[in-house]
Write a structure and sequence with these properties.
alpha/beta, Aminopeptidase, 3-stranded parallel β-sheet, two-stranded antiparallel sheet, 2 helices
């Protein structure tokens, strides 16, 4: 059974990007929760763990340590970039998470 770790970016005092009445931390958490629910509803061969399920701050080190200690097979970090980029970004690392 595969272990999928979903990281909702930002949180707590770290709001991430803000615009149009939205905070990145809130949108990322909503996406992470919906992603978890969708995967659990549509697929049966995975276990899912989230870095956070509420508005709280975690460092990158805390997030990656959680995934590594749990033995995650996949680490998905959700962010909504506002730095002028366009389209989709995907980063793949074939080893332990930083």
């Amino acid at each position: 059974m595969k272990k999928i770790f979903i990281d909702a970016g930002h949180g707590g005092a770290d709001s991430g990007a803000i615009g149009n009445g939205l905070k990145e931390k809130d949108v990322c958490l909503t996406i992470a929760l919906k992603m978890r629910d969708y995967l659990n509803r549509e697929y049966a061969e995975q276990i899912i763990k989230l870095s956070r399920t509420k508005d709280e701050y975690l460092t990158l080190k805390q997030r990656t340590n959680m995934a590594n200690h749990w033995g995650a097979n996949c680490f998905v970090s959700i962010h909504l970039n506002a730095g002028g980029g366009a389209g989709f970004e995907s980063y793949i690392y074939n080893g332990k998470f930083a």
